[in-house]
Amino acid sequence: MKMRKYGLYGVVLLFIAFLFIYPLDAYVSKPGGAYELSPIVEVENGDEDDVGAFSLMTIAIGKATPFSYVAATFSDKMKILPVHKVRREGENDEEYNVRQKKLMSDSHFNAITTAFKKVGIPVEIKYDGVFVMSVLPGGAAEGKLKSGDKIREVDGVHLHEVGQFANLISSKEKGDHLTVLVERDDELNEVELTVGEIPNSEGRIGLGVQFQEDRELKTEPAVTIHTADIGGPSAGLMFTLEIMNQLMEEDLTKGYNIAGTGEMLADGTVGRIGGADFKVIAADREDVEIFFAPDDDLPQNVRELNPGIMTNYEEAVKTAKKIGTKMKIVPVKTIDDALAYLESLEPK
């Protein structure tokens, strides 16, 4: 009897473990948190006596389990995301995480350059190698390079110009050997590669890597942004506002608790992001008073092909009404829209 009883307990424990641990081929997202930016963004000798606060918002995304999948089906504060809505085709979890970190890094770059431009301070930009986003299975670099690597040299030629890497590789023929200097985990190593056909490319020749030219930014005063555990580009707008707030003597917040979301593009446009609805829920939970939401343009043909699709602003307003928040939802197409709204605010 005791053995049977223990066996039954074991089956129950295994079933519970299956419900809460077994990963499904899907993701579940839910509201994340609000992170005040003054401790995250450091401008050397920047203004620190502001009364209000700018905050970035996050959503939580994780692999679905049987339990979380069922819970999300019946909850309006959880959402099931198919794999193709999270990862690109052929992208594994490691490559996804690397891409998210790179998007965050690019967000830092655009936020700093935009903020300094707005306050009239020049910045110095130089190109600094290429960043490996992913390695194609069956390509020349498979097993030798990996996502997250930075290629600094090709056959002894230092990469410091736009288009230089692509030009050097395109000059090679199938079977040619080359040596790349790779930075990985703060160490430099030479890697030997043989140029071959790029998988599924109709005979094109190359290394079989997806890459992005990397850039190094130098500013005076120096800016440091601490976001080791956060990925993606959606904090760009709020980074820009916080950097400007520390560069300027005036308090852009006017004493309010302000949050928002939106990618900061190089031309000052605030780009569309995912999870605007959950970020509104999280912001309301943190007593945010003003929330900036991208007022992205959705052409009519896009709306026709995607019935029910909404701009980030429309989605944010709908969620705000649903939860009954008093938080003000403000539409922004550009950084100038956000600054104009802040300028019009009466100090709290």
Automatic annotation (TrEMBL):
Assigned EC number = 3.4.21.53
Instruction: List, in alphabetical order, the GO biological process terms annotated in this UniProt record.
Output: proteolysis
Record-linked Gene3D superfamilies: 2.30.42.10, 3.30.230.10
Q: Does the keyword Mitochondrion apply?
A: no
- Domain named PDZ: residues: 119-186
The Lon proteolytic domain, residue ranges: 229-345
- The lineage's top-level taxon is Bacteria
Keyword set, alphabetical order: Hydrolase, Protease, Serine protease
Catalytic reaction equation(s): Hydrolysis of proteins in presence of ATP
* Active-site residue list: S234, K279
Citing just one GO molecular function, the answer is: peptidase activity
Question: What is the enzyme's main class?
Answer: hydrolase
One of the Pfam families matching this protein, by short name:
Lon_C
Report the sequence similarity comment from the record. Belongs to the peptidase S16 family.
Q: What is this protein called?
A: endopeptidase La
| Organism of derivation | Sporosarcina saromensis
